[in-house]
Every structure is written in C-alpha cells, then in structure tokens.
Amino acid sequence: MTEPFAPHADARDPHDPTGPHGFAGSGDGPVRAPAALPVVGDRLGVWRVSAALFDCGSGTWYRVEHGMAAAQTGLALVYRHESDAQAVLMRFAEDSDALSRFTHPAYGAPLDSGLSPSGLPYLIVPAMDGAPLLRVAMALPLKRRMQLLLDLIEMLDLAHEQGLVLHELDPGTLWLSPAQQLHWLGQGLAPTDSQAPVALVRAAEPLAATRQRAGARPDAHGETYALGRLLGLLVNGRLPRREGAEDLGLDEVEPGTTPVASLQSWLSLTAAQRESLDQLLDRAMMDGRSFTDRQLLAQAVRDWIDAVPAVTSGTSDAGGSAPAAGPASAPAPLPPPPPLEDDEPSTTTLPAASIAERIAGIALVLALAGVVLWMLLRS
User: Fold this and answer.
1) Is the pTM here over 0.90, yes or no?
2) Coil, helix or strand at residue 143
3) Which CATH class is domain 131-353?
C-alpha cells in the first residue's frame, strides 16, 4: 500500500510563522525561509533516509536505515512545525522507556528522536508496510471504518491496564497495514505519572478538547472527545469547524482526506440510518458531555453497526449502490443529549453528504419533470 512520495504544495500551514508566508518577526521583518525537509541520503542522527513516503498532517514520513546496522530499518516522521520540538523531544526523553514496555502487536513505540539538520524535530518508529490511515480509509466500507475506532479503543483498554493514558491523538500516526489492520505509531500514549510537558503536537490539536489545548493533563474527558472527533473524520472525511478554528489553523485535515469520498457510503444508507448516524456523530463530538468515557462511546458505535443490516443494497456495505427497495431496519433513535455547559459549545453540522444528497434529489426531480413535460408536448 506504500505509494510514491508526492509532496503537497500547500502542506505547510499558512498560519505557521515558520512557513513560506510567515515572518521571523512582526511588522516588516524579513521573511523566514521554511526549514528544508530531508532528502534521500540525509542523516537523522544515526539513521539514514532511504526513501520519502507520505505527507500527513504532522509532517512527512520517511523510510530510514540504521547507520550502524544496515539491516535495521524504521520509519521516521519529520514534523512540519519547529514548534513541535518540545512536545516531541521532551516527551521522548521522559516517556520512551515506559512506552517501550507496552506490548501490543499493533503499537509501534518510539525508538529514537532528535532534530534534522535543518532543525525540524523527528521521531523514529519501527518499520511497517502500509500508509497513514486517513489517506486510504475512505476506500473502506463505512462500517469497517467505524470498526477501526473500536480497534483503537481496544488498544487503549490494554494501555490503561498497563498504566498508560491517551496523551494526544495525531491522525498522522495511525497507519493501515496492507491487511487493513490499524497500527498506532509514536507517542500518543503517556504514563499516568508522566513528568513530560503537556504540550501537544499541532496536528493533534484539532482533536483535542478545550481544557487539554489550554494545558490540562490528559483525562477521560479529553480521551473520549478525541475519539469522537476521530469517528467524525472516519465517517465524513472532515471535522465540523469550531469557532476561531480558521484563524488558528486548528481544523486542518490530513492530506488525502476529503468529504466527497464519503458520499457514496452515505447515500447507501436509508434516511433513518443517516439520521441515527447524525445523532451519534453529534453526541460523539460534544466534548465528552454525552459519552463520559470511551466505553460508552464504543458501545454506541457497536449498537449502530449491529443495527444496520450487512446488506442494504445489491452489494455488501461498500457504499457503491443505492439502497434496496423496501424498508430496512435502522438503529433506535438516540436519546437527546444533556444540556450544554459552558466548556465548549457544539458546532457540529450535518455531514456534507446529506446536503449533497438533497441537491442531487432536487436535480433528479427537475430532470424527471422535464422528461414528462417533453413527452406531453410530443403527444
């Protein structure tokens, strides 16, 4: 599933002061050139870059070889933002030993960390085949995408048993193997007694709750909110925009994700199924008010998956055909969410797919009316 590296011209955040449109100082200060990304043959500490792989929201993934043992290979994530250095380097120094003791076949603990020759932070993780999840997730059936969230929650259950909690959820560190298995690479976890800075990498901020972005320690509230936001990405290919997000650059999506890619699977659902999924997403992204822990969220996702028939059209849940004629069973409506608090108001909107569906329906009605009128005029 590894694809040739294709750099994105707009990959760097336009609000990033280190980016091509940013300034080293304020006012009329000189433009600061962006830090150069590594190229094949460059060194990252004792590692040598052997191939450039993917862009993601965090930065760029490379395949690397150990300089002292050529047979040892790994993956390097070179972060786009120099400001991520504290979160990456300090957390590696504090937490890497604890993370290396977490044994799970789908988790890749960080092996090394440092700064590239141009000053960008990097993280080395075990080698694997595949691609960043959100680059390829929309090719999967809708229910399989939702199951990936349950796979991640199962991994978190085991992590909690071993004294680790979710520190941040950076979508770029979630990979999908060629066998369509979810893998988690890097430093998203942290020991419950971690002394590392609470700073988040910038790519994790769109999924982080208000209190955690303000510097609070990880808790169940922030964990569930991050998982709910990830569910929204897996279903819709985008996040609902929050107030002020555009100015702060907080709601950028991973390269390769697009809400258009989710349209076919959305249209394959009945109206009742779409409404119940809307309700689930609204509640999942309400900053932990409806689902106070990950288990409640996981159960709601399981209930929705189980309630939707495996076949809602001429094929399985692949999202490529219109629903079959006749009523299909739909999940029971979710109860209304509790009153909002003042922590972070919900601005979740209907998925883009439902708007596109309405436009397509109107266009279809107009086209049919035109055909009928034409036949009447001919007769």
Assistant:
1) no
2) helix
3) mainly alpha
